[in-house]
């Protein structure tokens, strides 16, 4: 467990540094918005393309890792929808607040997952986490936008609009391009590989700084019951679902540990942006994200160690 915790320390130190920089040095929102767009549209896609294009996919249980996490997302989504009437009756949870619970329980922070998997298992860890992205990101976007359109948005989006928003996701295209290069066995010139590698090495550190800059620590003082329930769903139930499905697919060792890593990370910070755009309860989701990111430093080592 100390080894896993040691791999997590630099990840969470970068998140803390991002929070400090946001409060003391880069205090303007537009500075972080620019960094986030650079990471999201350029640096992170470069990492995914370079990693997947060079990966030995024959040595990776693509169906097992992707299938386990895909089923975990479906199961958690169904659980959240089943709990909605109870949460509404007991906590007075309205539609916009429910969408924040849903996003907080189902989405995953890919920056953290890739950083931890890479620190623990080098290139194979990043490859497995990238496979997880291919499996999870399209489905999560469909589910999140669909739930927001149903329970929060003043005007429901049409399915063509939802599918268009998903099709514009640069991370999906990066994964598909990297896989296409790999499967077609195209020889990538060394200068292009070194260029993509240099961009990719920048992406994880900057991505984690962006996560830290988005934290709202004031939400830790008096967390809402809905936020605490969501933290339990994401940091405890989701890892159990992911590892359970992983075991059912026959995964073990590094493969199962990466599934546990991807299932136990905090929710994605870009869910906050989506909540603001589509009428969700953005302050509640900000509180959820802050609580999850703070507690994940304790829960992630536990689940990864249990299955490693």
From TrEMBL:
Q: Which UniProt keywords apply?
A: Cell membrane, Membrane, Transmembrane, Transmembrane helix, Transport
An example Gene Ontology CC term for this record: plasma membrane
GO terms of biological process kind: transmembrane transport
Cell membrane among keywords: yes
Q: Which residues cross the membrane?
A: 124-149, 161-186, 198-215, 227-250, 282-304
| Membership in a protein family | Belongs to the auxin efflux carrier (TC 2.A.69) family.
| Stated name of the protein | Auxin Efflux Carrier
What's the source species for this entry?
Rhodopseudomonas palustris (strain BisB18)
